[in-house]
Amino acid sequence: MEINVPFSRFQLCCLVILLCFPYIAFASGNPHENFRQCLTVNLTKDTSISQAVHTPANLSYSSVLDVSIQNLRFLTPDAPKPSFIITPVDVSQVQTVIYCSRKYGLQVRMRSGGHDYEGLSYLSGSPFVILDLVNLRAITVDAGNATAWVQSGATVGELYYRIGEKSTTLGFPAGVCPTVGVGGHFSGGGYGMMLRKYGLSADNIIDAQVADVNGKLLDRKSMGEDLFWAIRGGGGNTFGVVVSWKIRLVPVPETVTGFTVLRTLHQNATSLVHKWQFIAAEELPHELYMRVILQSRNGADGNRTIEAFFEALYLGEADELLDVMGSSFPELGLTREDCIEMPWINSTIYFAGFSGQPLEILLNRSSNTKSYFKYKSDYVKEPISEPVLEEIWKWLIKADQGALQMIWNPYGGRMSEISESAIPFPHRAGNIFKIQHLTSWTNGSVEESAKRISLIRSFYGFMAPFVSKSPRSAYINYRDLDIGMNNEFGNTSYGQASIWGTKYFNRNFDRLVRVKTAVDPSNFFRNEQSVPPLTSW
Ligand SMILES: Cc1cc2nc3c(=O)[nH]c(=O)nc-3n(C[C@H](O)[C@H](O)[C@H](O)COP(=O)(O)OP(=O)(O)OC[C@H]3O[C@@H](n4cnc5c(N)ncnc54)[C@H](O)[C@@H]3O)c2cc1C
Ligand SMILES: *[C@@H]1O[C@H](CO)[C@@H](O)[C@H](O)[C@H]1NC(C)=O
Ligand SMILES: *[C@@H]1O[C@H](CO)[C@@H](O)[C@H](O)[C@H]1NC(C)=O
Ligand SMILES: *[C@@H]1O[C@H](CO)[C@@H](O)[C@H](O)[C@H]1NC(C)=O
Ligand SMILES: *[C@@H]1O[C@H](CO)[C@@H](O)[C@H](O)[C@H]1NC(C)=O
Ligand SMILES: *[C@@H]1O[C@H](CO)[C@@H](O)[C@H](O)[C@H]1NC(C)=O
Ligand SMILES: *[C@@H]1O[C@H](CO)[C@@H](O)[C@H](O)[C@H]1NC(C)=O
Ligand SMILES: *[C@@H]1O[C@H](CO)[C@@H](O)[C@H](O)[C@H]1NC(C)=O
Ligand SMILES: *[C@@H]1O[C@H](CO)[C@@H](O)[C@H](O)[C@H]1NC(C)=O
Ligand SMILES: *[C@@H]1O[C@H](CO)[C@@H](O)[C@H](O)[C@H]1NC(C)=O
């Protein structure tokens, strides 16, 4: 487990590279100039390419680099910077970037929305290029057939908006935060408030366009079912650049209902959270997704309490929802006044915290408030007892107000019906809920970062007995390098990669390795947590 302050691993990597390969440092102009010429030669008739190439000499470089970085821990002058940022406006430019990067030994980090928790889409210890898909974000909704093609650079907010323009009875199961990029999100699974009804985003993908390691453009038919399986949850930056996805849209009623109900310890939060574990996944209808957000707060009397927010989406009207809650969870005391009826598209801004704003907020790629953060994930298969809940509350209360939060996301429903091997994402039947452990902060000092990271690691240690074991599972879209990393040189051992690999993919890890070995044996597409090919062991 890494115990250093943030960035240290990247700085270390840079140092090792410089020591081992001094020619990169001393002759860096040449490979870079060759790379640039390669782009130019291959795209002679493409006048837009010069507008798509940003080097540190361009004024645009910093703003293009920084704009989509969500985790402020990695938005610092001493973070490793790319030699080039390429923002293709055409798929052929993606193919050329792959060809030229490979030829001139530059690593590629592809970026769609930039939400990677550990910054892997824009940081590398090796000389690298960011292939930023921000300008490839076309969305074509075919409401009649209930399908859509969406390019990877689109955000889920843009996708929701375009669906909403065409239909009031279609939706798509994807993330709660509108600025999340489709490219990374679908590559790691992707879930939101319709998880229990329709599963993950990746469960609803029916075709894709992928540029492979040779720069060849493949669709589902030409890539074959193994690669098509792997890209639906097997992690980004591993099998190729997914340029575009064809998705199956899902039916939603004209009116859905949302609520957010707060209960503190004085309002029986402990027994409510305890009971929630027995109904949220197993008993409630698939149409109801009720998650719990937990944190501590200083009361007016100076006493610290626990706040449990029960936040839910019901795919139906309030009267029905009140019946369901009255019979399954009367203790919560949900009232008609708590319930907000709205179209599904409005529910996307409600859960994103933008109620009352125009729907166009979904198109705003900068609407998310950036912060410093470290998040981790866990899966729970046995309900947590009340005495253990009390122990958890002590941790939340002991931390500064709000410094430690948890989000409990119920599983069950559709998630339990899909087999563990249908796509690489393995966390299906048997999981009651997933925990997201969070600490986020605004003070950028090294001391504060160290304190927060140490806090969440200790808390994660405390939670070990109460969550999944062998492996202690994790969600790849909640990327966490504490659970294991590849080394920079591609000579990662099977044992080393399988540590983090089985946590994210369980028994699907081996099939992912086989697919990777077939499609990218030289491990060109790689990062600290990409599935390695057999040849690199
Ligand atoms: C504020 C916030 C809210 C979130 N909310 C949710 C949520 O509600 N539900 C949920 O499931 N997750 C959520 N996440 C996690 C999110 O799903 C992941 O961080 C996801 O990987 C982000 O995708 P991206 O394109 O924005 O990120 P990026 O950082 O661009 O990419 C993430 C990874 O995918 C790779 N990648 C990017 N584009 C491509 C591509 N076109 N082809 C292949 N690989 C690619 C990158 O190299 C990187 O390894 C949230 C994250 C944040 C920061
Ligand atoms: C970056 O600078 C080069 C050289 O001046 C120029 O050709 C290119 O168009 C610039 N890129 C952008 C995006 O402006
Ligand atoms: C790029 O140019 C080289 C040499 O001219 C050529 O061999 C290669 O096929 C081209 N690649 C692409 C993707 O256009
Ligand atoms: C479904 O898609 C096909 C092919 O694009 C199109 O011809 C047809 O009109 C669509 N059906 C409906 C109901 O829109
Ligand atoms: C808390 O639970 C007890 C017993 O289950 C009940 O009597 C009491 O009314 C509840 N309090 C609140 C505020 O719901
Ligand atoms: C605050 O905490 C003290 C000590 O636990 C307790 O005696 C008191 O009743 C609490 N105040 C309120 C308003 O709950
Ligand atoms: C949906 O949201 C939009 C934008 O905030 C708002 O104008 C509209 O009144 C909302 N519709 C309903 C039925 O709540
Ligand atoms: C997008 O949202 C951010 C943050 O709320 C805001 O500052 C910015 O003005 C918005 N941009 C547009 C184009 O509305
Ligand atoms: C940030 O944290 C450091 C160390 O914990 C502290 O010294 C400093 O005063 C803090 N800065 C702000 C603005 O709170
Ligand atoms: C990996 O490869 C690098 C570079 O060749 C070498 O220095 C290092 O010792 C290798 N590590 C292992 C674990 O084999």
TrEMBL record:
- Name what cofactor the protein needs: FAD
Signal peptide residues are 1-27
Is the keyword Lipid biosynthesis in the record?
no
In what residue span(s) does the FAD-binding PCMH-type domain sit? 78-252
InterPro entries per UniProt? BBE, FAD-bd_PCMH, FAD-bd_PCMH-like_sf, FAD-bd_PCMH_sub1, FAD-bd_PCMH_sub2, Oxid_FAD_bind_N
Read off the Pfam families from this record.
BBE, FAD_binding_4
Which keywords, in A-to-Z order, does the entry hold? Answer: Cell wall, Disulfide bond, FAD, Flavoprotein, Glycoprotein, Nucleotide-binding, Oxidoreductase, Secreted, Signal
Q: What Gene3D superfamilies does this protein map onto?
A: 3.30.465.10, 3.40.462.20, Uridine Diphospho-n-acetylenolpyruvylglucosamine Reductase, domain 2
Q: Single GO molecular-function term?
A: FAD binding
Tell me yes or no: is Metal-binding among this UniProt entry's keywords: no
Major place of residence = secreted
The entry assigns this protein to a family as follows: Belongs to the oxygen-dependent FAD-linked oxidoreductase family.
Q: What is this protein called?
A: Berberine bridge enzyme-like 18
Q: Which organism is it from?
A: Punica granatum (Pomegranate)
What's the encoding gene here? LOC116213296
